[in-house]
Design brief:
Number of helices: 5
Low-confidence stretches: none
CATH architecture: Up-down Bundle
CATH topology: Hypothetical Protein Ta1238, Chain: A
Helix content: 55-70%
Distance between the termini: 70 Å
Number of strands: 4
CATH class: Mainly Alpha
Largest sheet: 2 strands, antiparallel
């Protein structure tokens, strides 16, 4: 018999964590890794709309790390289960890419509004979703322990996505939309 995508086990609003614990689908742990999944989808959208192969390759690596991060968050904290791991080198990867992208960018002197090009806007949407995932995960950490590297990765990734938006804007020859506050 073929595997079916529907199991009907969630029809009453519960889902299972890795390890078997059943929790409401509104549980903060589910919200956290569900938002990471949403973020991963937006990063896929950016990857599909980015003309630069090196950025596409970097985004694929980031998507893989987000799957790892989601698996960590989806694991019952009361169980000692083996999950894929995030490493310090994953943080270093993001920091190296941020530093590299910033080398060719003009110094930031103003706040930037999302926009300028569709792909740039996708980067800003992903950045905002990443920040939401981070906030949810921080809240979860107040209730149940979360590996510190998970929080650090999400924090660094939002910085990466901001710089990526600027880099893509530059590569596409689009103009950054600078915020000019209204003067009274």
């Amino acid at each position: 018999m073929a595997f079916k995508i529907y199991t009907k086990t969630g029809d009453k609003g519960l889902t299972s964590l890795f390890g078997g614990a059943r929790v409401p689908k509104s549980h903060l742990r589910i919200e956290s890794y569900g938002t990471v999944d949403e973020l991963n989808s937006y990063i896929g959208l950016i990857r599909d709309n980015t003309p630069t192969e090196s950025i596409q390759a970097d985004l694929k690596i980031i998507q893989d790390r987000l799957f790892t991060l989601g698996a960590i968050l989806a694991t019952d904290p009361d169980k000692q289960l083996s999950t894929p791991d995030l490493l310090e080198e994953d943080l270093a990867f993001l920091e190296e890419r941020i530093d590299y992208m910033e080398l060719g960018l003009p110094t930031l002197k103003n706040f930037i509004l999302p926009g300028g090009h569709t792909t740039v806007s996708f980067c800003h949407v992903a950045r905002c979703v990443c920040r939401r995932a981070e906030r949810l995960t921080v809240n979860l950490n107040d209730l149940e322990p979360v590996l510190p590297i998970v929080l650090r990765y999400l924090n660094r990734l939002s910085d990466y996505l901001f710089v990526l938006g600027r880099k893509i804007c530059q590569e596409l020859g689009a103009e950054e939309v600078v915020w000019a506050p209204r003067k009274s």
